[in-house]
Each structure stands twice: as C-alpha cells, then as structure tokens.
Amino acid sequence: MIVALNPAAENILGISQQRARGKSLLRLVDDEPEMRDILTRVVQTGDHYANEMHLAPTEVHGDERVVDCRVSPIQADKAVLLIEIADVTRRSQITRENALLIQHGAGRQMIRQLAHEIKNPLGGIRGAAQLLERQLENEELHEYTDVVISETDRLAALVDTLLGPGGPPMKRPVNIHELLEYVVRIVETEAEKRLTVQRDYDPGLPMIDLDRDQMIQAFLNLIRNAAAALDGHGKVTLRSRAATNFTIGDTRHRVIASIEIEDDGPGIPFELQDTVFYPLVTSRPDGTGLGLPAAQELLSRHGGLIEFESRPGRTVFYVRIPIEQQETDADG
Hints:
five-stranded mixed β-sheet; Beta-Lactamase; Heat Shock Protein 90
C-alpha cells in the first residue's frame, strides 16, 4: 500500500499523492507480474532488486511505457519499501531505432549482393532466349521464348525497383490520408476475403513533400502484410498523428508525421521479431520476405523509419516521416 509519492511518481502513475495514499501500487500498474515479483522478492529476501519492465496503457497514459524499477528495503515510519521508477520509454525507443537502422544497413548490403547475383544470369537467360527465337522456324514456338524473355524482363525490373539502390525520390506535396485511401482500395480489390478498415486520422496533418509512387509501394507492402495476417478475421486500423521533437537516427526533427498500421491478428512470431527487416525473412509460406526491407528502404530515402511492436492480438507498424523533408541521398 502506498504511503507517499513524490511529484515524479505522481506523473508516472497518473495519480496525486492524496488520492494514492493507502491504495495498492500493483492495482495502479494493472497488477504487472514483474512488479509483483520484484516487490515480493525484496520483502522476502531484504535484498535490493532492479529491473526494466513494461507498464500497460492507462486512462492517463494511452501508450505502453518502459520503466526502470529499483526496489530497496527501508525502515521509515510506516514504509518498508522504497520504489524508484524512471520512465525510459524514449531511451528504449532510440536504442531500438538505432538497431533498426543498423539492421537496414546490413539488409541493404545483402540486397545489393543478391541483386548482383540475380541480374548476371538474367542477362544470359534473356540473350539465350533471343538467340533461340531466331533459330525457331515454327512461329507457334515463339510464344514460349516470348514468355522467357518477358519473365526475365519482369524479374530484372523487380530487382531494379525492390533490390537495387534506385533513384532519388521525385518529391511533390502529398496528402498522406488520400494516399492511404488509395492503397486501401488496391488492397481491398486484391483481398479474397472482406477487409475491415478503421480510420483514426489527424485532419491537421499538412501536405508532405514525398515521392508518391515510392510511398504507395511502402504502404502497400505494410497494409498487404496486415491484411494477410488477418486472413479475413479482424480489422486493420490506420492512424495518423503529428509528433514533435522526434529523433530519427542522429537527426532531431521539429515535427514528424507518425502513421500507424495496426492489426488484431496473431502477431509476428517472437523468434522473427529481431530480423523481420532483413531480406527473405518471412513467416508466410507464400511470402517473399522482400516487402518489409523494401518499405524500410523507401522510407529511408525520405529520411524516415519504420518501427513496430507485436504481440498476439495487436501488431502495429509505425511509419515515421519528417514533415519538413530534406534532400536524401538514395544510397545513404
């Protein structure tokens, strides 16, 4: 039971000292199992313990938070435990963002090597098909060489657009909500089963200078993944917000657009969560494992970043886009 709080604790717990006095700390943190465990251990052993844990969203704090929690035994008036809680959510996010950027850099290198290995034999296959076509006297057989040539051209284009470094973005002012609705129409047309989409847009978001085609491809990959995860059961939620003083990599932006693509499907398997932005990593039998790294690459060309969190029943991909765009080198 809480004896006293300082102002920082009032802010983290979302309750005043007057209202908190005499209440159960565990009830205020939604009976967080790690918190219960650490308090029990200190009471039983008299030792000091510290742990990092997640606090579930509350009425006051709408998002999950990461906190450092230190518990010490004390003897002061009625108090027997001193609990120090520090909100390290942003520090944890920055660490995760840096890991994603490192992963993207490694993934990009893998992609370029893969592109090189694919493009070399494609040129040979196309050339051989053209030579063979000239030797065929039966016009009906040209249908088959035409298929070989067209398919090698298609694969070469895929390598150029998804695997290759690509050109610089051709930026024009874009309404991000109109772009999202365009992508939803495409995915709804493709879906074999009905797709339920819920919108939660911030109407105050301004136009953003973006390469429309590249951003359509990025959002298409993300929303297709969400739709595939649902398999006709559940809903996709599209959410947009503005965030201020947000750091992406080493750059602090005055304001960014944060686009969330949420689904209530089974979630990304835990064993894949650290590698989903590497190429060829997928949990679906029919997946290529190129959608997420390609989307991350396209966002990086706009100085942005894709992050995610996933657990059964809730997977959210966060697309962070600086609203004040700067020229970004396609290769760096």
